[in-house]
């Protein structure tokens, strides 16, 4: 008898490996949460929970876009740069050109859509491998967002080297996106929750969602079944770009300035959330529920470590270890289970 299997006469055995694969990430998240609640005062309060969601909303929304791109192909490495571009665009629209917050939102969404479509053209029509294409777009967008502002952070009232003074400021309605609350919940968190619910329903409960999964799983079979594979792949990367720009809008609302380094950390957090999602309930594939759980898991971990007084580089180390454990649960152990 396998020592890792518990069997009873007449009943199917329950493998410990199977339990680890399916519930390992959830168990780690639960243990960490209980520990932090026990040792940190008010960690389980509504205010702390809202703070965790608010802190992770930017990367989590970008991760949801990355999840959709991963479903049809591979990880979209340009999401962090696209979020940063939205911060720059928002600052230029409101601070440099003195336009409204609504105009800034529209311009940011258009910028994200353009980046997403660029990724799609390179991948779908020019047949460049997904990771290479999105990596190239990432570097291009990072350079673009700095070139637009001459490498400077745009702030209210600043004067450029050529003597031009910035006439505008961040619109109060735009700043409210991350600054105000709805029924005690930050608006940015509400946006994240709504996007997550809509994406989950679309991907898990509609025919089009199932086609997205089919395109990613076996493009040729999906094509033979009548799916327009290129259209679905194009749509996935375009939507990923738009969601990255939404993340950037929230980040710009939080910063209230055009920080040229904004969005640099979004990519790594989004990748971690998406990959941790592979291990949730043994999915072994990108999925919205897993990405949301990954975002909450990382949020709880970082909030707890921060309140415990650990340095940021120690937090990065622990976050990396958690990601590696999740990948082991998702791939190595699940392969052993199927043997």
Automatic annotation (TrEMBL):
Show the GO cellular component annotation of the record.
plasma membrane
In which compartments does the protein localize? Cell membrane
UniProt-listed InterPro entries: ABC_transp_permease
Among Pfam families, the record links this protein to:
BPD_transp_2
Q: Mostly located where?
A: membrane
Q: Which keywords does UniProt give here?
A: Cell membrane, Membrane, Sugar transport, Transmembrane, Transmembrane helix, Transport
| Recorded topology in the membrane | Multi-pass membrane protein
Enumerate the CDD domains for this protein.
TM_PBP1_transp_AraH_like
Source organism's superkingdom? Bacteria
Q: What is this protein called?
A: Simple sugar transport system permease protein
GO-annotated molecular function = transmembrane transporter activity
Query: Coiled coil located at which positions?
Result: none
User: Which organism's genome codes for this protein?
Assistant: Lysinibacter cavernae
User: Where do the TM regions start and end?
Assistant: 20-40, 52-71, 102-126, 182-203, 234-253, 265-281, 288-305, 317-334
């Amino acid at each position: 008898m396998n020592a890792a299997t518990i069997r009873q006469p007449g009943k199917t055995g329950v493998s410990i490996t199977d339990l680890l694969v399916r519930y390992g990430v959830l168990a780690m998240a639960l243990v960490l949460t209980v520990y932090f609640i026990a040792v940190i005062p008010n960690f389980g309060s509504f205010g702390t929970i809202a703070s965790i969601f608010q802190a992770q909303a930017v990367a989590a929304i970008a991760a949801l876009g990355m999840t959709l791109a991963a479903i049809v192909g591979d990880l979209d490495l340009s999401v962090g740069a696209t979020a940063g571009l939205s911060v720059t665009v928002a600052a230029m629209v409101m601070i440099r050109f003195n336009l409204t917050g609504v105009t800034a939102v529209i311009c940011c969404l258009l910028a994200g859509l353009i980046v997403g479509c660029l990724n799609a053209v390179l991948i779908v029509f020019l047949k460049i491998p997904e990771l290479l294409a999105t990596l190239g777009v990432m570097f291009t967008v990072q350079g673009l967002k700095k070139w637009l502002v001459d490498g400077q952070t745009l702030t209210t009232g600043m004067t450029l080297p050529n003597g031009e003074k910035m006439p505008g400021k961040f619109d109060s309605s735009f700043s409210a996106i991350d600054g105000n609350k709805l029924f005690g919940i930050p608006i940015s968190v509400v946006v994240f929750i709504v996007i997550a619910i809509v994406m989950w329903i679309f991907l898990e409960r509609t025919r089009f969602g199932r086609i997205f999964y089919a395109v990613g799983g076996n493009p040729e079979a999906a094509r033979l079944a009548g799916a327009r594979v290129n259209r679905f792949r194009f749509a996935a990367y375009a939507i990923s770009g738009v969601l990255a720009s939404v993340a950037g809008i929230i980040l710009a609302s939080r910063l209230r300035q055009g920080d040229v380094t904004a969005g640099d950390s979004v990519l790594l957090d989004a990748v971690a959330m998406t990959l941790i999602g592979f291990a949730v309930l043994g999915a072994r594939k990108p999925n919205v529920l897993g990405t949301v759980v990954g975002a909450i898991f990382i949020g709880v971990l970082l909030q707890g470590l921060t309140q415990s007084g650990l340095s940021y580089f120690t937090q990065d180390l622990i976050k990396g270890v958690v990601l590696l454990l999740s990948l082991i649960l998702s791939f190595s152990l699940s392969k052993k289970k199927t043997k």
